[in-house]
Amino acid sequence: MSQTAADAPVITGDRPGSFPRSVLAERHPALIGQVRAAFPYGPAQHRALDALLRECAEGVIEPPGPAAHDLDRWREWGLDEHTGRSWYEVPFLWAESFFYRRLLEAVGYFGPGPWQGVDPFRPFKLAELRTDETAAELAAPDRLAPLPAEERGRALLHGSLWGNRADLGFRLDAGNGGAADGPGHPGAPLVADDSAALWSLLPAGGPGTVHLIADNAGRELLADLLLIDHLLRHRHAGHVVLYVKPYPYYVSDATTADVVDALRRLREAGGAAGAAGERLWEAMGHGLLDVRTHPFFCAPLPYADLPGDLREEFGRATVTVVKGDLNYRRLVGDRHWSATTPFTGRTAYFPGPVAALRTLKSDVAVGLGARTEAALTAEHGHRWRTGGTHALIQVRS
């Protein structure tokens, strides 16, 4: 069944018991508490965090101050339309994005002042790089080394896919050892698997350019970098562009600083992972791997609204790989689509071939067969969409 946007309501948080409602009512207040505890903020930050907490719980959306550096940009992104409304009534994608913008403002990230540019999520990201789980995953390339290159590539692709289970924001709900680290693991069945189509776009020895829009820092970014190293080393791509967020976002979304931290962690790991880290470090120096960012990556807008410069860049890529749940929502539209709505139709606007690698942690899903959807719903109810236990690889070539 195909749908148009007119048939698929925009997702909001106004329905009690829904996933968006739980994010706005539970996850965001919990995050404010975690950020408050992670730094020795002064009275001004504590007052601002208290005000944001009250606003999220019982108030309406307030705009940034009149001197905010990005006020005009947020007005272009719908601020005037949503100011004064309940957080639960506006589009969920917009409410989430604006919450993180307001949280950064509350802790002084945008300055001027001594806290300017201090990532409030950095302690969580750095801690994840030092976990036993991360150490175990960095040992995995040594076990893959004896395999043929094609098999290693498939394993690294799935590692990048399932690395999305390490989303720190998601863990606020799931908890360590919860759904985010449960059945979602390499080897678990995918609800859609177009990996063969992806590899067909990237034959070994080809001169292609891969654009990868990153999602999370930490373990997921390590897996992404190992996949990028494989693509460059075996000439599935002659050039890779890694897109990251321009500032901290959604707790664990990757920034340039997180890429540097991940590369340092790879280099010190030793073995095959360490060798990959050294190659990637050199690849950046030679321009084979570029890191780029753009304000649009923190916009509360679908990719259908891509600005002209990004549209031109993605149009030149052999394939653009879109990582993670948030990017998927922006790629197909954050609406209540029927799961059988064709992925190719929802991404027809994209300026070049596009692939989505995503662990399912929100309501949005398209491109599934009717039997697959029926079986998933019969076994898991609605939870298969939001629990982080299922994943997909979808390609429009």
Question: Your description of this structure?
Answer:
It holds the Pfam family ARMT1-like_dom. It catalyses: beta-D-fructose 6-phosphate = dihydroxyacetone + D-glyceraldehyde 3-phosphate; beta-D-fructose 1-phosphate + H2O = D-fructose + phosphate. Belongs to the damage-control phosphatase family. Sugar phosphate phosphatase III subfamily. This protein is of the alpha/beta class and 397 residues long. The protein has two domains: 8-120, Transcription Elongation Factor S-II, Chain A (Up-down Bundle), CATH 1.20.930; 124-396, Rossmann fold (3-Layer(aba) Sandwich), CATH 3.40.50.10880. The chain has 18 helices and seven strands. The protein has helices spanning 19-38, 43-58, 71-76, 79-82, 92-106, 122-129, 132-144, 149-162, 168-174, 195-201, 219-233, 256-269, 271-285, 308-315, 324-332, 343-346, 370-380, 383-386; strands at 192-193, 209-213, 239-244, 289-293, 319-323, 354-359, 391-396. Strands 1-7-6-5-2-3-4 form a seven-stranded mixed β-sheet, with helices on both faces. α11 links the parallel β2 (209-213) and β3 (239-244). The chain is globular, with a radius of gyration of 20 Å.
Most strands sheet: 7 strands, mixed
Count of distinct structural domains = 2
What is the C-alpha radius of gyration, as a whole number of Å?
20 Å
Terminal Cα span: 21 Å
What share of the residues does DSSP label as strand, in percent?
5-15%
Instruction: Return the CATH topology of the largest domain.
Output: Rossmann fold
Tell me the total number of β-strands.
7
Which CATH top level class of the largest domain fits? Alpha Beta
CATH architecture of the largest domain: 3-Layer(aba) Sandwich
Mean pLDDT reading: 92
Structural class of the helix and strand makeup?
A: alpha/beta
* Helix and strand element order: HHHHHHHHHEHEHEHHEHEHHEHHE
Biggest sheet, spatial arrangement of strands: 1-7-6-5-2-3-4
Outline: globular
Tell me the name of the CATH homologous superfamily of the largest domain: Uncharacterised protein PF01937, DUF89, domain 3
As residue ranges, the low-confidence spans are 167-187
| Tally of alpha and pi helices | 18
Which bin fits the share of residues in helices? 40-55%
